[in-house]
Amino acid sequence: MAKASTPKSTSRTVRSAGRSATAKTGATTKPASTKTATRSAAVKSATEAAPAPKVVSESTPTASSPDMKKKELIDTVVERSGIKKKDAKPVVEAMLAVLGEQIAAGRELNLMPFGKLRINRVKQMSNGRVVVCKLRQSTSVVNAAPELAPADETPDE
Description:
- The chain is α+β, with helices and mostly antiparallel strands.
- The chain is built from 4 helices and 5 strands; from the N terminus they run ββαααβββα.
- It has helices at residues 34-49, 70-81, 85-104, 139-144; strands at residues 11-16, 19-24, 109-111, 115-125, 128-136.
- The strands form 2 sheets. It has a 3-stranded antiparallel beta sheet with strand order 3-4-5, with helices on one face.
């Protein structure tokens, strides 16, 4: 009597691209992307559950007037303080020289209402130095700046 051969179900491991999947002969195989599908479903559900990001403050760059030169600074100081230009000019020039020296020395400046100036980076170039600074100003000072009156005027009471 001849014995009928029955197909045996054997199992083997298939490795591809660092992943392994067990496949049985005679059985249907699962695609190797089930982990990827499960992972993407988890990421999608986590993304949906996370709150939407909120913009704390929106800052749009504004086109400002050209750079303020030393002459304009002196004229503004004279106008605000009410002193003569010949008295204000040496004081403003001396103040700018001291500020430049202190920044060159790497010192932080805390000059209210101007603000707190901190040096982030310094890069030596062939024609000079590039100093990247961070200036932090109080919002009360920034908002109050346009409301300042010249020294000779007094506010109405």
